[in-house]
# Entry
Amino acid sequence: MIEYDLSFPQITTQGTRTPWDLEVFLYKGAPSTDRKIVIEAIKRGDFGTVETKRIPLVFAFHEALTCFIVKGKARTTLINNLLILRDLYAWADTHSEEMTVESVVNSFCLWTEYLLERVHIKQNMAERTAYSMAAKMSNLIARALKLEGMKPGRNVLCLTRITRPEDKKEILGIQNDKDNVKKLFEFGNILTAICSSLDVNTIRGELPIYISAPNNIVIEVAGRLLKPNLDLSTITDENLLRAATRSRRAMLDSEHIFEKNARFPILRLRVECELLIFIAQTGMNLSQAEQIDKSNYRWQTNGEDFDVFRVYKNRRQGDALFCCFKAYRNHFNTYLSWLEDTGLSDHDNRLFPFFGRSMGGKGEKSAATFKSTRLVFKKIGKTFYSPKTLRSNRVNWILRYTKDSKLTANMVAHDESTLLRHYEKPDYQSVATEIIQFHSNNQQAYSPPGPGVCIAERQPVTISNFSTNSPDPDCISSDGCLFCDKHRDIMNMDYCWKLSSYAYLKKLELNILYSSVDREKDPNYRVLERIMKKLESISKENKNQLKWVEQANDSVRAGIFHPYWDGHIRLMEIVI
# Structure
């Protein structure tokens, strides 16, 4: 049997992890078999002989993936591409697709239909997941077939019915902004509480661990205990009682922290939380942050921030690694000491070491999935923020604080166009402020005969919802002013008092001139109706404006009228 070298020695594996080898794609039925046993099964001849038609395409995929490795693609990205490629070949075997150079594009299109079926009919896959898989696979196929063009992968994807799902648009409003900020700060406080509580002594102590977070939140950290709240007094079997007690007891001084499998998830939980705090502070991309090496650092003040530099033994000043706020320095130094005390630094030189398993630190390096942190926040019913969301909120906070897109883009290492297109999110308060500034700069206010202000003196225009029997707009009478499109309200207490007093004057005029049957035909009734609608609209905006309207109405009921209308009202009351 001919053996083909389709492995990836550049993708390092440790422990019991199975190396990746594209040779399995040459045998029908092999891609869907467990990777741990498939190579031995191939050697035994369980999958028959090699499908010779597949050889050119598999070699092309191997060359494309090797190019990705040479270009420095992240290990996580390569593994994801291999998993998706394996899924495609497993589907092809089930549906009798040949998977050749000539048929791969057609097979890919049929595979995307299978993804759409999972999304819309079986509903066991998210729409964004299907799009991500199809996009990665189309780029890999374009690379393998050496297609030409600006974006050949996109051209392949356009042959399918897969489309990019629309992003969910957030509701714009004051309350929504306040809720997001409140939840974001709560998220950060909980992360800090977890990191502060999980010191070496606590991790080596008895299980489960209970962490007190702000707002009376208690977080249970049980490691790998299946029943953390088990009452040991209810166990009658001596062997089970001995095992349960042993798994919960504090570690002995002679025991290394990696010797206890139950402690390793706790270590990973803190590393995840530290990484999230680091991203929120520095704005660094996740793929860069999880690969940054641990070293000695020199701190240099830069205004309100700290620039961090590596310190080399020859005292040569290195490049800046990241920039963070001053308050983060003590927290970061505490974390560096924690890495030394736990022994994680002895097994991994990364600043945020992640392993797929324990085994004394010999497990294969893994990516930051934040599964432990997500589970903690799910248990306590709080919102979890992904690294992408944290970076986006940080960018928008800086943008709102500086009000300078060029400066913000420079601070977060982006082009200004990229910042505005992918990161900037409008907030209600900023939008309202900009609208007010626009009208202040572009609409000169004039004093009209009626309450409020006018933006175009001597240019009366009828309002859009003009009703029958309403006064014609003019610049002479107060009634006509209210029905002009150039009239503007003033959001303050005095204006509400002025409207309420004017409404009382209109009521007096209607009581004198008409009976209850005929009054609705008079233009004064339309004026009164418009005033009441204005007061109702103002009161519905927020609680402060509601108080203005209520206080204005109370003043009028008490006989305290606005000076603008007080004389007219007194004369009308004498006539009555």
The chain has 22 helices and seven strands. Residues 235 and 543 are 59 Å apart (CA to CA). Confidence is low (pLDDT under 50) at residues 312-317, 358-364. Strands lie at 209-213, 217-221, 297-302, 305-311, 317-325, 453-454, 487-488.
